[in-house]
Specification:
The complex is a heterodimer of chains A (511) and B (515). Chain A is mainly beta. Chain A is 4% helix and 49% strand. Chain A folds into 5 domains: 2-109, Immunoglobulins (Immunoglobulin-like, Sandwich); 113-215, Carboxypeptidase-like, regulatory domain (Immunoglobulin-like, Sandwich); 222-304, Immunoglobulin-like, CATH 2.60.40; 308-399, Carboxypeptidase-like, regulatory domain (Immunoglobulin-like, Sandwich), CATH 2.60.40.1120; 403-506, Carboxypeptidase-like, regulatory domain (Immunoglobulin-like), CATH 2.60.40. With 515 residues, chain B is mostly beta strands. Chain B folds into 5 domains: 3-101, Immunoglobulins (Immunoglobulin-like), CATH 2.60.40.10; 105-223, Carboxypeptidase-like, regulatory domain (Immunoglobulin-like, Sandwich), CATH 2.60.40; 226-313, Immunoglobulin-like (Sandwich), CATH 2.60.40; 315-408, Sandwich (Immunoglobulin-like); 412-512, Immunoglobulin-like. In chain B, strands 2, 3, 5, 6 and 7 form a 5-stranded antiparallel β-sheet that branches. In chain B, strands 10, 11, 13, 16 and 17 form a 5-stranded antiparallel β-sheet that branches. Classes of the chains: A mainly beta (511), B mainly beta (515).
């Protein structure tokens, strides 16, 4: 009921939002685009009901929404032939404030590209049902990796067509896994297994890159057999399931029956084998990396070990933090993500942690930051936590005296830049703080651990890239040094590093 | 000589000398050879594989004498298990094993707007006309989106009569929030090839084996569409209804499903609704708080703003199965189902435990038919909330209930001969709790045996073509009522009949007369 009243109160301040959809290359209006204005979810409320205003641009590309209630919005547009405008990474942001006229909104739309071709086998015979992907280097959790930007399946003529792609440079990869009768390993155009030797193809806006034909070679399938044993007794363990995974997402598994396991259908390559005792979170586990060559892999021995119990405390100064249950810590490993349990007394426990190297990640409520993390007497570095043996107690110190900075991001011509990504990093803090500038170029970052920082703003960087130290390195000389003081607000205006979208592809390198 | 060597020598002497199998795989439609077909020969202990060459030939040597099942697979063809096994005697070289594979076909075309311009990213569904226990149905055989040129292409389709429907996936809805100022008041609504609102008015596409039907262009219907708005109320419950309202065409699958979220104040707003009769439902099968609501909404030429959907909690139907009138010691795990007699409805399934107990959880109030998918034992009687249900139909109240099933093992048999080979035999009883007929295939010499039949009066028929689905279709079977042999099965009795199969030609002719 209260929310209803609030809504009515806001409605009284409703404004008109209008604008135009234009072709980003020709600057001509795009007629008949479906335009949607979507309210931004309030922080810490993932289940919030959002407001959606939907309309269509007219012959002159113009759209208009009346009675839009105050709030922050994203504007996105769809029209045949144009990939969704927000896929470009640049979303048109709109703020509607009570009593203020909303500036004209321009949604720039880029005509999509198409990549098409055929998939054939070693004899030149067509392959149906092959999976074909258009890939680009992108960032996930600050790590550079190949990401799928579009995909298609070959038809009965072996033909595929990947459409709706953002114009840009792509690797094209085809593969097919249909069991014993037809398994073809992932192959990049024009015929490489390794991305470093693959061709990087330029897909032009509004154009089609055709005849991107890929020949696949049928693979012999091999089995991996072995034994999962108990660390104490050396005997074969019962109730164990073994999985084999590749870096590109293939997975196959088998149960240990009697005293051995077999995993079928493996093409040559590197696999991570994991064994897990049934009982899920409480069972023992094992992990080993193996190479499958041109024959069956036999005699693999996986030794089960019990998970470690990692325990410690979370404190703000000497106090138990307020609302400790809202604080979340995770141990992230290569193939595990373990959430820590924090009780009301501020004790934290990670159960059943397989001995390995992990990264400690966290999400915190507003107003606090992580000041220090100790394992026993040792202060942890920011590049991970060694849990290969019995761990010393963990001591996590939080603090509430974080600094704040705010300012405006401008381009070299002095104009405010909307949607710029601001990062600040230091050699001592665990976090890389980031923020995105609003339509007036303003940004704000709070809860920053006091210390020496370097601040950078990127006009048009790929999503996630500014968090990558390797990506930032060429721009370090443009970084603004900043001393963040406890509980102090500072104003820092920044000049954005101009568009660097294309750079990610250029960085190249292996996965 | 050590004992083990002696044993090996003995084995060696006893091992039969191997034979070989070779043959040809052809395309049943063209008669031409099929290359790169995979042949698998399976014996009890061993499996042999081969691939055909450019002439369609394959050869397997070193085959241990015995009986082998031959399976053939090739991309673009129906996989085939050869009905007659391959028999290999000692040192025998079986040649000329021929297998004709039925090729699959292609249906391709475009989705067009009212000006004939192609429409990208529309959803197209291919439905195959089938006949079976449920009558004539259009069963989905795949769906895909049109590409940037508005083109779709279904391949690997088995031969048959196809109906195609295009819809706009963006219309389905599902936005979690409030939709305002929706200026899109006309919309492209679900359309059957070539431009029909319903499948009954649609044109069928007869796809022959290996054929390609091109130019199957669907012209989308553009219509004034409306909103259906209302409120979902749950008397006596503070629970948040975390499920969408679904709008589906009543009694048919001819229209697209539309979804609208239920907001925190209980309101919902479904947009893009075409005039007609819609069934609005809310279903949640959360194990603790299942709930269900259902109401028919008629949309004419304006928005419908006042729909009140009253939610009722679902309840559990708890049951016990008795075996031959006693508590069962160890039943096989049998599936039990409540099949809704009103559409749209949800089939509720459970497994009968070895001790005879079962729970059909989250059952919404309404009429259902009880089904136990078993003939050994067979379902003899149904009792629900203390009342006998002789036809297996029960009316579940919102409080759920107690379901008692009597299973029995005293079934009788019908055996005999059907002239010709490979006939299919059906025995149908109108008095039993089985929804369909008992089915068996005749073996060599035309002998057949139908076992574990619930006592009752049966109509027995033999069919030359082994079309399992078609012979279960009641309307089809009725066309041959005069040909059926009447048999009365008693507890543990064995009845014998001699049958003359309905010929393949008669079946084809009857198929054409179906409604």
């Amino acid at each position: 009921m209260i929310r209803g009243l609030l809504f009515l109160a806001m409605a009284a301040h409703a404004q008109t939002v209008q604008g135009v959809t234009v072709n980003s290359v020709t600057h001509k209006p795009v007629a008949g685009a479906i335009v949607q204005l979507i309210s931004a979810a309030p922080e810490q409320d993932a289940e919030a009901e959002l407001e959606l205003y939907r309309g269509r641009s007219d012959e002159a590309g113009r759209f208009r929404f009346d009675r839009v209630v105050p709030g922050h919005y994203r504007a996105i547009a769809d029209a045949p032939g144009f990939p969704r405008a927000n896929l470009a990474g640049r979303v048109a942001r709109v703020s509607v404030a009570p009593g203020a006229t909303v500036p004209e909104v321009t949604i720039a739309m880029t005509l999509a590209a198409v990549i098409s071709g055929r998939v054939v086998d070693q004899d030149g015979d067509l392959i149906a049902y092959a999976s074909v992907e258009a890939l680009q280097y992108g960032y996930q959790s600050g790590k550079k990796s190949l990401q799928q930007m579009g995909n298609a399946r070959s038809d009965d003529r072996g033909e595929y067509r990947i459409f709706g792609l953002m114009p840009g440079r792509y690797y094209v990869r085809a593969q097919m896994r249909a069991g014993a009768t037809a398994t073809y390993a992932p192959t990049f155009f024009p015929g490489q297994r390794d991305v470093t030797q693959a061709s990087l193809l330029e897909a032009p806006t509004g154009g089609e890159l055709h005849s991107i034909d890929i020949m696949l070679h049928q693979e012999e399938l091999h089995n991996a057999t072995g034994k999962v044993v108990d660390a104490q007794t050396g005997q074969a363990a019962a109730n164990v399931y073994v999985m084999a995974r590749t870096a590109d997402g293939f997975a196959n598994g088998g149960a240990q029956l009697a005293d051995s396991f077999t995993i079928h259908g493996l093409i040559p390559g590197k696999y991570v084998l994991t064994a897990q005792e049934s009982g899920g979170g409480t069972g023992r586990s094992a992990r080993q990396v193996v190479d499958v060559g041109s024959a069956d892999l036999t005699g693999v021995v996986l030794t089960l070990s019990a998970g470690l119990e990692v325990a410690g405390t979370v404190r703000t100064g000497s106090d138990v933090p307020d609302d400790a249950t809202k604080i979340q810590f995770f141990l992230q490993g290569d193939d595990a993500n373990i959430a820590g349990h924090i009780n009301a007394a501020g004790a934290i426990t990670f159960h059943n942690v397989r001995p390995d190297h992990y990264h400690l990640l966290w999400t915190l409520p507003k107003g606090i930051y992580v000041k220090s993390i100790k394992l026993g007497d040792r202060v942890l570095p920011d590049d991970g936590i060694d849990l290969t043996g019995p761990p010393a107690p963990l001591a996590i110190q939080l603090a509430t005296d974080g600094g704040r900075i705010q300012g405006v991001v401008r381009n070299s011509a002095g104009e405010p830049v909307a949607g710029a990504v601001v990062t600040m990093h230091s050699d001592t803090a665990y976090d890389v703080w980031t923020a995105t500038s609003d339509e007036a170029g303003q940004y704000a970052i709070r809860d920053i651990a006091p210390g020496e920082y370097r601040v950078l703003a990127f006009d048009d960087a790929p999503q996630g890239a500014p968090q990558d130290p390797d990506f930032r390195k060429p721009f370090e000389k443009s970084a603004v040094p900043l001393q963040v003081l406890p509980s102090t607000q500072q104003k820092v205006d920044l000049v954005a590093v101009p568009g660097v979208q294309g750079l990610v592809v250029g960085v190249g390198g292996g996965e | 000589m050590p004992l083990s060597h002696l044993f090996l020598a003995f084995l060696f002497l006893q091992a039969p000398k191997p034979g070989s199998v070779s043959g040809t795989v052809t395309n049943a439609a063209t008669g031409g050879p099929v290359r790169k077909a995979h042949i698998t020969l399976r014996a009890a202990e061993q499996t042999y594989t081969a691939t055909t060459d450019a002439e369609g030939h394959f050869a397997v040597s070193g085959v241990t004498p015995g009986t082998l099942q031959a399976q053939v697979e090739c991309a673009g063809f129906q996989a085939l298990l050869r009905p007659e096994p391959v028999r290999v005697a000692e040192e025998q070289h079986v040649t000329n094993v021929t297998v004709a594979l039925i090729p699959n076909g292609v249906i391709t075309g475009r989705v067009l707007d009212e000006n004939g311009d192609p429409m990208p990213q529309m959803m197209v569904e291919a439905a195959l006309e089938t006949y079976g226990l449920a009558g004539r149905t259009l069963s989905p055989r795949g769906s895909m989106q049109t590409d940037d040129r508005g083109v779709y292409r279904f391949f690997d389709l088995p031969a048959g009569r196809y109906f195609l429907m295009a819809s706009n996936p963006a219309l389905a809805g599902g936005w979690n929030g409030r939709v305002h100022g929706d200026a899109v008041e006309t919309a492209y609504v679900a359309t059957w090839f070539p431009a029909a609102a319903e499948s009954r008015a649609a044109t069928a596409n007869q796809l022959a084996p290996g054929a390609e039907l091109g130019g199957i262009d669907i012209r989308m219907r553009k219509m004034r569409v409306y909103h259906v708005r209302g409120k979902v109320v749950a008397p006596g419950s503070q629970q948040r209804l975390d499920a969408p309202v679904m709008l589906a065409a009543c009694q048919t699958a001819d229209r697209q499903f539309l979804y609208a979220p239920i907001l925190r104040d209980g309101s919902f707003d479904a947009s893009g609704v075409e005039p007609g009769s819609w069934c609005a439902t809310v279903t949640a099968t959360n194990p603790v708080h299942g709930f269900y609501a259902r109401q028919t909404v008629t949309v004419t030429d304006h928005d419908v703003n006042d729909v009140i959907l009253t939610v009722a909690a679902t309840a559990d139907v708890r049951g016990l199965a008795l075996l031959d009138s006693g508590a069962p010691a160890s039943l096989p795990r049998l599936p039990v189902q409540l099949v809704p007699l009103e559409t749209p409805g949800r089939t509720v399934s459970a497994t009968i435990q070895p001790d005879g107990t079962f729970t059909l959880a989250n059952t919404a109030a309404g009429p259902y038919r009880v089904e136990v998918n078993s003939r050994t034992p067979y379902l003899k009687a149904v009792r629900f909330n203390g009342q006998d249900a002789p036809d297996g139909r029960i009316l579940v109240p919102s409080s759920g209930g107690q379901l008692m099933l009597s299973l029995a093992t005293d079934g009788g048999e019908i055996g005999g001969t059907a002239s010709g080979e490979n006939a299919l035999i059906t025995a149908f009883s109108s008095s039993g709790l089985e929804a369909g007929p008992a089915i068996a295939g005749a073996g060599s010499g035309g002998n057949f045996l139908l076992r574990n039949l619930a006592p009752g009066d049966y109509q027995v028929l033999a069919w030359e073509t082994r079309d399992y689905s078609l012979v279960q279709y009641a309307e089809f079977r009725k066309l041959f009522d005069s040909r059926a042999v009447s048999v009365t099965v008693r507890s543990k009795s064995h009845e014998t009949v001699t049958l003359t199969p309905v010929t393949a030609a008669e079946m084809e002719a009857a198929k054409a007369r179906l409604p």
